[in-house]
Design goal:
Chains A, B, C, D, E, F, G, H, I, J: Pathway: Aromatic compound metabolism; beta-ketoadipate pathway; 5-oxo-4,5-dihydro-2-furylacetate from catechol: step 3/3. Chains A, B, C, D, E, F, G, H, I, J: It is an enzyme of class 5 (isomerase). 10 copies of one chain form a homodecamer. Chain A is an alpha+beta fold. Chain A is built from 2 helices and 4 strands; from the N terminus they run βαββαβ. Chain A has a single domain, classed as Dimeric alpha+beta barrel (Alpha-Beta Plaits, 2-Layer Sandwich), CATH 3.30.70. In chain A, strand 2 and strand 3 form a beta hairpin. The first copy, chain A, is elongated, with a radius of gyration of 14 Å.
């Protein structure tokens, strides 16, 4: 079951560059695992913004919330979720 | 080069059901061709709305505009374009 | 799997009172069936607006889109869908 | 008398993880009591957000304000209240 | 139980000046009755707009919806309802 | 001359509970005086928000600004002012 | 007593060029009279828009509403009114 | 050449009352000079807000930016600029 | 003196394809002349929209309004004007 | 390939005037280099705001993101990117 998300990240000013680097390393690992499992089908940087679009493939709304809230940077993210259905013109 | 789009369709009230059916058939063919050529990488219905998200892969901004403005329903669409870059956490 | 929706209805000015009454009768039947099947868990009028909140319980995003787009008044509705997950404080 | 609410929680950056855990424990108890009394008919997590939808059943606007402002996290919440009426198509 | 409302009126272009005059006469009577019954505590024109603020005093959300949807111009109104509670600083 | 206002209060995070209590006591006195003078005709809590609607009756725009900017909590308020005129359907 | 307004004009599509010319002539006369009476202190075109800013000087909110609703094009205007007070830095 | 501006001031929480008083005194002088030079034709407080509307008369866009960015409080202002042209109904 | 504009075009539904073609031909000539005169320094299509960004170089606000309101499609345009000043980092 | 951008800069309150001056010097050098390379075709200050419009000419979306995220002040910028195509009326 597919969902399009947009995630915008805003770090609080008190975080040091080291803190942020740690978050980014953990995020890369977490995101990579989700991609290898097929739960993230694609993730793209939005040009000029600290934000991404990602396409999730999960079984349930609950699973999606669990996956999203497990992102290391989740406390600093604003997430917008758009549920997707099959498009009648899609050839897949 | 990738772009995420959101297209919302609103038909003017004077269009008949037959007119709309003709538009939809032409749209399906046009969209199918773009998918077969790889210029649309994915197209998804937004649940509950006469709208879609689509992922385009084209060479230039000009090509994207040409492709979008060629949709049979283009005069009735509101299109929002988001340019995408490679995400550092993407494994592809 | 639960979703909260908000549906706002706007009839085009050319619809007669009779047309609207027909739509409303068909809508009542369609909505009643969904409630009896348990796919709508609750539907409430928003005070002062031709709009409602409804709580849907369906298996998939695709099923939700099929159910929503089957409403007789769907062409005149603006629908906003919010996917829901279990709340950690819910006692149910 | 029914009301739909949406509550969004934002903690100020100076709160420690312990402070937040205390708030969450008190919140769980407070929310559980309201559910057992029937004053909250349902509460759901909004997927991907630190937010919920809840359905309240209380006697008056004043009672609703008293209940909402009693939430332990109320100072950190943004609450939107939508008064509900019986929907003509509801079978309940 | 008090509610503040804002009502904005937009007539469709096909209504004649006579139609509008009839609506306005019926509206005046309907509104006057609600004021005499005490269900409208005050109604004020918003300067420069075809809109008003009104203060309603009714028993329930359902009664408020019934009263609002009974306005002759209701099909041409956009209504925003704000539930009110006693203010701790009010001396009444 | 009447004006509807909406005031939203946001305290900065560094204010202590004691500071806030002092503000609230001064606010209660200030607001009470305005009500006894008839310059505030009514003040109501907006359910679920640290906000109010108030109906002011003053002689001039300048007097209204002086009264509003004299509120002890004014530096922490966002105020929206709507000038009101007599409504043709008002029976008062 | 001063108010800043912004008026945006939108003519319905069925109005002919002649109708519009008649409206514009009546508007010019009405606006000119208000300026000669000093009730409009200044009126300026907003560059690139069929809109203006005007500065009104009237005795009361009621007078302002009467003046605004008397504009020949009032039914086609969207008006936003901002009440003004003396600025402490104004040298006038 | 005329421009309407709206300036909203927000002081950061760390500024002391003394700091603010110094800013206000410098602002009064700066604003007074611009008025005496005729570069500000009028400045008005927006009722209930720490904001003003001002009417500027300068030679160029560059001059306007220089004047605006020279305000002592400029770092704490949000400024909106609307270029004005002669209105065909203006009698001046 | 430079201004950035964004123009969005919406044709009313009653215009025929021929009417639109006539407008487009007149628009092309008008726009071309402005470019040859240097009053338009650049004009670009916004991808996926019937809209453009253009950079104007004119002497005054009044001249800009005259030029904009002279576009054949002006009655069907929504125009947003942003006055520009020299940027301190510009090397031109 | 062209893109119009709007960049708004907001410095966090803890930055000193010296810190800001360092950022501005580095920004000037970075921006100057991009202009000399032709990757920025023009950059303009938005009057009254700490913001600019810039016109970029780059090969790909990825290059644009790399260039934008390399700005020394990027962490303090909000950037909006609009992809541009050739306008049919452009004479260039």
């Amino acid at each position: 079951m597919l969902y399009m998300t947009r995630m915008d990240v805003t770090f609080p000013p008190h975080l040091s560059a080291e803190d942020i680097a740690v978050f980014q390393a953990r995020e890369k690992e977490y995101s990579g695992n989700l991609q290898r499992e097929g739960r993230i089908q694609g993730i793209w940087r939005i040009v000029g913004e600290y934000a991404n679009h990602a396409l999730f493939d999960v079984e349930t709304n609950d699973e999606l919330h669990e996956v999203l809230s497990g992102f290391p940077m989740y406390p600093y993210m604003k997430v917008k979720v758009t549920p997707l259905a099959k498009h009648p013109n899609s050839i897949r």
